[in-house]
Amino acid sequence: YGTTITYSELARRIGSRAVRAVGGVLARNPVPIIIPCHRVVAKNGIGGFSCGVDMKIKLIELELKYLRLFYLRKGTCPLCFGISRSIHIYF
Question: Is 37 part of the annotated catalytic residue set?
């Protein structure tokens, strides 16, 4: 929950060089909230989303909000736990 990954890193992890194909598959995700494709981001930006970029940003912001609350209660920094550098550009 709340962790992001780039399209290229996801392609690498599944043993593919076809970064655009990964994006194409995610664009056809029939259940984008259940299969959290909004957490896949571009290397140099937010990237696309089947429900629109504005919704992608809202979902990531919502998750970050709850992560911050969770980690603040524990007395630790939420930005140190699995949130990729790509997202830090925007938030």
Answer: yes
Extract the tokens encoding 83: 């949130």
Q: Which of 37, 51, 77, 80 is catalytic?
A: 37
Domains (ranges, CATH) in the chain? Answer: 5-88 (1.10.10.10)
The per-residue pLDDT for range 8-38, each reduced to its tens digit, is 999 999 898 888 898 888 888 888 878 888 8
- Tell me the pLDDT tens digit for each residue of 41-61: 888 888 888 888 898 888 888
3-state class (DSSP) for residue 78 = helix
Instruction: Indicate the pTM of the whole model.
Output: 0.64
* Spatial separation of the C-alpha atoms in residues 50 and 12, rounded to whole Å: 22
